[in-house]
Amino acid sequence: MLKEKSHILVVDDDLRIATLVCRYLEDHGYVAVRAESASEARIYMRSMVFEALIVDVMMPGESGVEFTRDIQSRENSPPVLMLTALGELEDKMKGFEAGIDDYLSKPFEPKELLMRLNVILKRTRKPAANNDFRIGRWQYDDSIQSLVDGRKEIRLTTMEVNLLKSLAAKAGEVISREELARTCELDAGERTIDVQVTRLRRKLEEDSKNPRYLQTVRGKGYLLRIEGV
After folding, report:
1. Which residues are bridge partners to 70 per DSSP?
2. pTM of this prediction?
């Protein structure tokens, strides 16, 4: 039986770049669909299931960041790899805050795009391997990389998964931002950790301003309390 190909949606108004990306993905075994705008992307997403999205940050009308923020607010949203010509840290942080899983700065090598996409898909497809644990009412399910409570399922981005696992591996211990940035392989720096913690708290805590489980230890870092710790 042939393995079903993964469907990737490329959202970019630049015809040349989008066509190149789609052809390269198809040459490497993917089904690639191009959308010129966020609104067109939503039309495709209503009729097709995509394993991942490649989204350009600079688009007329709704930007890639705005589009990502909107789709990531919904359940079971696909992971997002963002393409950006902007190299500033603040621009990258806006993307992470919106819910991207990774970013790639233009100009880029197609091989690097494929590598980053494969890493994202590998993580989101990874089978459970005794990595499940409970935090309050939430059960972390590693097979779908989501928080579940029997009624609701909240998908985590790749960055959020890496952060949560790093904290859970040393549950009850304080971990510095520097160590978390290194463990999570965040080349955007320690400030990005703060952005990811804020996003994770919104999903995890009943009151993100007064966190019970994911706590800040002033001047030292962060601490995660899971069941029994």
Report:
1. none
2. 0.65
Q: Is residue 229 part of a domain?
A: no
Whether the bond into 60 is cis, omega within 30 of 0: no
Locate 147 and state its tokens: 């928080």
**Helix axis angle, 64-72 to 89-98, nearest 10°:** 30
Asked if 156 and 100 touch (Cβ cutoff 8 Å), the reply is: no
In this structure, which amino acid lies at residue 103? Y
Is the same domain home to 182 and 217?
Answer: yes
Question: What six digits make up the tokens of 59?
Answer: 């688009």
Structure tokens at 144: 């779908």
Top-confidence residue, 91 or 40: 40
Q: Provide the domain limits for residue 78.
A: 7-125
Residue 28's contacts (CB-CB under 8 Å, 6 or more residues apart) are 114
Q: Do 130 and 140 touch, CB atoms closer than 8 A?
A: no
- Alpha carbons 212 and 165: distance in angstroms, whole number: 17
Same domain, 164 and 118: no
136: phi then psi, degrees, rounded to nearest 5:
60, -125
User: Which CATH number does the domain housing residue 219 bear?
Assistant: 1.10.10.10
Q: What is the pLDDT of residues 35-82, one digit of tens each?
A: 999 999 999 998 888 999 999 988 989 999 999 999 987 767 899 999
